[in-house]
Amino acid sequence: MAKRVDATNVTAYYGGFKAIENINLTVEPKTVTALIGPSGCGKSTFLRSINRMHEVLPGARVEGDLTIDGQNIYDRDVDVTAVRRMIGMVFQRPNPFPTMSIYENVVAGLRLNGVRKKSILDEAAENSLRAANLWNEVKDRLGKPGAGLSGGQQQRLCIARTIAVEPQVVLMDEPCSALDPISTLAIEDLMFQLKDKFTIIIVTHNMQQAARVSDRTAFFSIEETGDPGRLIEYDNTQKIFSNPSQKKTEDYITGRFG
Amino acid sequence: MGETPPRSADAGTGGIHVASGHGRPAGASARVAEAPVSTRTPGGDGLGGGGGLPRARAFGAERAFRGLTLAAGTAVLVIIAAIAVFLIAKAVPALRANTANFWTYEGWSPNDTAPKFGIGTLAFGTVLSSALALLIAVPVALGIALYLSHYAPRRLGTALGFLIDLLAAVPSVVFGLWGRDIFVNPVRDFSVWLNTYFGWIPIFGGDGPFGKSIMLGALVLAIMVLPIITSLSREVFLQTPTANEEAALALGATRWEMIRTAVLPYGRPGIIAAVMLGLGRALGETIALAMTLGITFGISFNLIENGGNTIAANIANAFGEANDTGRGALIASGLVLFTITLIVNITARAIIYRRREFTESAA
């Protein structure tokens, strides 16, 4: 249920603009890896390259190799939808489907995969909502609109929706940036539980959060505006935050830059 | 400090007095108090208001604007009421003079000494031709709209969208002429073919002549309502939040699955509104149908035989030679059309309203 992610020389473009260059990074199964760095350094671009969501934007493309347990997801004969089913994603702003109920939101991914049987859907909905620590709050109103929940609940709903299809890897793009501290805490707790089953990669601007939740931390940076983002340092979180080997990393985490 | 006198003169309205150094020891605080005033709004007291609160204005742009919008809103109601009153006042005498049943009589001779006219066939023809036109136009229009919004390259989408909008600008009399003189030929051939092979289905039965039929009218109507439905639903589809589309894609949806999961449900109220606007145009379309339909009286589901008539087309055809009763009869038919349109619109509203819990939170 959790797989290893290997990035080799990953370079991503938006049209003619090179957003990230030669990213090399390995993420072990059942760990939480945090991507940190100043705005515009390509963390999110890299994250979106991992489940091929980057290429959704017009003109965007990725070069290099990205393998999940040895299988290159950018191979020509790989089905994009299969990649995205295997690698789930939680977005910066909670984005439940506005026209769907809570229940329909959670099982949306299963329905897309052709699961029709009510008993399977019901079970998956309950399990995912429980795993997302949302079940107790919504079990009496599963038929209500998902957009009627609070921001934090919506984000947990989106996490439930993502894990309902049982992906191997879960990507989170600043999942807490639109949430209050209590909801943030709830999601951080959730990450601890989820890493028993999934490989989690999270982009965050909050360095305390990176320090709290992650096992490994990757620091991205750019030289100047317009330059591509590069991976500056990648190490155990504890090392990055206590004794980074790069000067730039130290400057960033101590707040002297970015 | 040189500005102080004019400022206090201004301030008379609100009684504002800024502590700009009066009785204070010269120093840092005085400088701080003055600096923002002189830089931001010379001659004023700063946007924040430096002293007591001024009184609310009794009459200002705010109120004037409110009055204007209220007047505009009321005007709509007044106009609709006036139309209704006019139609009823003109229609009632003619309806009194009618010697046949207005609802069931199949014919229209209100100019005779014993006026006989019935709305049934006209209302039937109106609803049938419009419904058929929508049946043809809606799937095509939604297909075009989805292609323009989600499949076509952006430039091509914009160019094609512009062309579609141009189609909406073609006057209906042009469509009518084209339908009557050119489009009628292929439709006649097609009708004959349908009659030969599917004549056993009542709607394609009959012995001819074929051509100037409900089918021709509905096809021309369909082409006319196509651009409205297309460009409105295209706008609606383009407004789907990217976040929702990405959510669907990230769950492993194909493009079509993404459209089904995120775009169509989100756009549903907009699609209904677009279809209803198209239906409104189809119901009220006059000249194109007056030119393409065979103009007969009689309720028939046959789509391909010469015939068919609608309320609006009948008004256009019969108004010229109508006497007083004749005009009253036509106005009565107009009243029925007005009611049909009203019912259609109310139904559409009801459909949109029924799921408002979901659609409102979508905004």
Number of strands of chain A: 10
What's the CATH architecture name of the domain at 5-97 and 168-253 in chain A?
3-Layer(aba) Sandwich
Strand line-up of the largest beta sheet of chain B: 1-2
- The coarse silhouette of chain B is flat
Percent of residues of chain B in beta strands?
under 5%
- Secondary-structure element pattern of chain A, one letter each: EEEHEEHEHHHHEHEHEEHH
User: What is the global morphology of chain A?
Assistant: globular
**Distance N to C terminus of chain B:** 52 Å
Q: Based on helices, strands and strand pairing, what is the structural class of chain B?
A: mainly alpha
SSE arrangement of chain B, N to C: HHHEEHHHHHHHHHH
Protein name (chain A): Phosphate ABC transporter ATP-binding protein, PhoT family
InterPro entries (chain A): AAA+_ATPase, ABC_transporter-like_ATP-bd, ABC_transporter-like_CS, P-loop_NTPase, PstB-like
Pfam family, one (chain A): ABC_tran
Keywords (chain A): ATP-binding, Nucleotide-binding, Translocase, Transport
Task: Describe the protein's architecture and organization.
The complex is a heterodimer of chains A (258) and B (363). With 258 residues, chain A is α/β, with parallel strands linked by helices. Chain A has helices at 43-50, 80-86, 102-112, 118-131, 135-138, 151-164, 181-194, 207-213, 237-242, 247-253; strands spanning 5-14, 17-27, 32-36, 60-68, 71-72, 87-90, 169-173, 199-203, 216-221, 230-236. Chain A has a domain at 5-97 and 168-253: 3-Layer(aba) Sandwich (Rossmann fold). Chain A is built from ten helices and ten strands. In chain A, helix 4 (118-131) crosses helix 6. The radius of gyration of chain A is 18 Å and the shape is globular. Chain A starts with a strand and ends in a 5-residue tail after the last helix. The mean pLDDT of chain A is 90. Chain B has 363 residues and is mainly α. Chain B has two domains: 1-55, no CATH class; 85-360, MetI-like (MetI-like fold, Orthogonal Bundle), CATH 1.10.3720.10. Chain B is built from 13 helices and two strands. In chain B, strands 1-2 form a two-stranded antiparallel sheet. In chain B, helix 4 (120-151) runs parallel beside helix 7. The model of chain B is unreliable at 1-41 (pLDDT under 50). At the A-B interface, helix 2, helix 3 and helix 6 of A face helix 8, helix 9 and helix 13 of B.
